[in-house]
Design brief:
Blueprint (H helix, E strand, L loop, with lengths): L9 E4 L6 H15 L8 E6 L5 H15 L2 E7 L2 H10 L4 E5 L8 E7 L8 H11 L17 E3 L4 H17 L7 E5 L9 H7 L3 E5 L18 H9 L4 E5 L6 E4 L5 E2 L1 H14 L7 E5 L4 H9 L3 E5 L3 H11 L3 E3 L5 E3 L8 H15 L3 H5 L7 E7 L12 H14 L4 E6 L5 E7 L3 H18 L2
Parallel strand pairs: 2-3, 2-4, 3-6, 7-8, 7-9, 12-13
Antiparallel strand pairs: 1-5, 4-5, 9-10, 10-11, 14-15, 16-18, 17-18
Helix pairs in contact: 1-2, 1-4, 5-11, 8-9, 8-11, 13-14
């Protein structure tokens, strides 16, 4: 079990749990581990979202990197996928995003990216932790002319704008109807500094909300985790589409012209359909996680596509994509990875691919979203003894109850059991055709697990 890193980097309350001293150690150890195989002075990029604690964490990270002897380029407020893109373009040795993604402002976090612009694997995070706690960090202190230097490179965000113009200019230049208008919700986060520039440069008409960050309003009743405001905005302004990003800009969810949500599963279906039609969906395959709705599975089967499912986390989706050469994957939450463009989830890219699908098919968002019928899902937590939470599949009564229900579903429902990685809980997720029935069954299985694993 890792001590500091979770499923998406390090994420804690800023300045009390994620303290400057801890950040300094994470930076110094990270610089050492990520540049072990370089024969030159390493260069590391740092980007952040709009949280009030961002500059505090950034300062501690810079100190740690410079102390090791790495040079730093500070990108300022910038979306996570822009940092990933710039890491590769500038041939940097590594990069860091300071963000707690969709969490509220008091949290902050640290996400490392390799020189390929990808989140580093679990093994490297474990190496960083090991060095942090080894008592040997002082052995890696630069002296004299080996101390690193930092510089502000805030204008590099324009390279990210150009990236979209290069790929989408011709597609949108003459094909967008005059009455096509998109609602943008930037969650008062990292996309607030660049979304307008990108949409304006591509000639896409838009109306924007939640783009006035003040350090504490990031994700506050807005963005991809709070879609109610965007739904109202789309309906009130009779917009063609609404798109919502999260705090660091690596997720996107959408709202159709009727005010209905288009989640990550539906986005995967819409984008896969568009790519397949053009012969650009590698091996006719979508990679998703075990949390993806059964409806996505049915869509894939009905359209001669293969759906591969990994454990939860976009890094595991990416690993599967890289291993087998697939180019489309993602999560229900709106992390969509389009490997032909960028090796991480990119909210703005996802929204442009959705708009592209709408324009090229001459269909409304609601029509495209209807290609997937989502099954009702219910999630119930069973409170268990923390030492027994991984034993659910060893108990015959629990196994029999699950098998009996899955047999009853006969392909029109499923049961997914997942122990929590951080709490004494076993999560029971059931999908099926009737909400009331699956809720009852989820509670029954959760109660059984609680009795058996208490």
């Amino acid at each position: 079990m890792r001590k500091y890193f979770g499923t998406d980097g390090i994420r804690r309350i800023a300045n009390t749990e994620l303290t400057p001293s801890l950040v300094y150690k994470v930076a110094k150890a990270g610089a050492c581990v990520l540049s072990r195989h370089t024969d030159h002075t390493p260069t590391i990029l740092i980007g952040r979202d709009t949280r009030i604690s961002g500059t505090l964490i950034e300062s501690a990270m810079v100190a740690g990197f410079l102390s090791y002897g790495a040079n730093v380029k500070l990108l300022g407020v910038i979306p996570t996928p822009a940092v990933a893109y710039l890491t590769r373009k500038l041939k940097a040795d590594a990069s860091v995003v300071i963000s707690a993604s969709h969490n509220t402002y008091e949290f902050n976090g640290i996400k490392y990216f390799s020189n390929k612009g990808m989140k580093i694997p679990d093994t490297l995070e474990e190496e960083i932790e090991e060095l942090m706690d080894s008592g040997k960090l002082d052995d890696f202190t630069a002296v004299n002319d080996k101390i690193g230097v930092s510089e502000y490179c805030l204008d590099l965000i324009e390279e990210y704008v150009y990236f979209f113009r290069k790929h989408f200019d011709e597609i949108f230049e003459k094909n967008i109807p005059d009455d096509f208008i998109v609602g943008l919700d930037t969650a008062n986060g990292a996309t607030s500094v660049v979304a307008e520039k990108i949409f304006k440069s591509l000639g896409i008409k838009y109306k924007i909300i939640n783009n006035n960050p003040d350090g504490i309003n990031i994700n506050e009743n807005c963005g991809s985790t709070h879609l109610e405001g965007l739904k109202k905005f789309v309906l009130d302004n009779k917009l063609s589409l609404g798109v919502a990003y999260d705090g660091d800009g690596d997720r996107c969810l959408a709202i159709d012209e009727n005010g209905n949500e288009i989640d990550g599963d539906k986005l995967l279906a819409i984008i896969s359909s568009n790519l397949k039609e053009k012969g650009k969906l590698n091996k006719d395959t979508i990679v998703a996680t075990v949390m993806s709705n059964l409806g996505l599975n049915k869509y894939a089967k009905d359209n001669d596509l293969q759906l591969l499912q990994t454990k939860v986390g976009d890094r595991y989706v990416l690993e599967e994509m890289l291993k087998e050469g697939f180019n489309l994957g993602g999560e229900q939450s709106g992390h969509i990875i389009l490997l032909d463009y960028n090796p991480t989830g990119d909210g703005i890219l996802t929204s442009l691919m959705l708009i592209k699908a709408m324009i090229e098919s001459n269909k409304k968002a609601s029509e495209l979203a209807n290609m997937v019928k989502l099954y009702p899902q219910v999630l119930v937590n069973a409170k268990v003894n923390s030492t027994k939470k991984y034993d659910y599949d060893k108990d015959n009564d629990i196994k029999n109850a699950i098998e009996k229900l899955e047999t009853e579903f006969d392909g029109n429902g499923r049961v997914l059991i997942r122990p929590s990685g951080t709490e004494p809980l076993v999560r029971v997720m059931i999908e099926g055709e009737e909400q009331e029935y699956i809720t009852k069954k989820a509670r029954e299985i959760a109660d059984l697990i609680e009795r058996k694993l208490k």
